[in-house]
Design goal:
Layout (H helix, E strand, L loop, with lengths): L2 H24 L6 H7 L14 H25 L5 H9 L2 H4 L7 H11 L2 H19 L7 H22 L3 H20 L7
Helix pairs in contact: 1-3, 1-6, 3-4, 3-7, 4-9, 6-7, 7-8, 8-9
Length: about 200
Amino acid sequence: MGHSQAEKAASRERVLRIAARKVRAEGVTRPGVADLMKEAGLTHGGFYKHFASRDDLISQASAVALAEGTAKMERAARKNEQDPRAGLIDAYLAKQHRDAPATGCALVTLGAAAGRGDQHFKEAYEQQVRAYLDLIAGLDDNGEEARAEAMLTLSALVGATLMSRAMADPELSDELLETVTDQLKRHASGAPATAG
């Protein structure tokens, strides 16, 4: 690869990383081409050297944002060697995750957009859901129930994070995260659920 091709590839990758962070934080409708290119240190006019359209960039950035989540989930699960599922739950439903959507799980931010998106976007979203389900199911030894438990866990993680970010009352937001964390751990351990 020549020097100019290497520079072009590096510039494209930089724009994609910035756009991926923006779509996680703001969704797919807000990031503007001019702002993304400026943040990447490039001119607006150079955009079309890298992408066919804004939709092309957002689609690719969304796929990048989604795919980055698997490694983070695996690291979270490994932090608690005795109970990897609890480690994953703790990390996902942490206030730090709620408060940092730009570096958080893209399933939360991009779900509604994927539902309205084209087939490519839906497939990228689905691929990430499948990866998370496989990861979560692999944390248990309960065989045929593992997939159903993974679906329940992933739905609760994504839903609780989405709702906690959307609340104006910080105390209610914290309570939601803490309660769902507790209930998911109790459910996973087989302990009876409690009422808050």
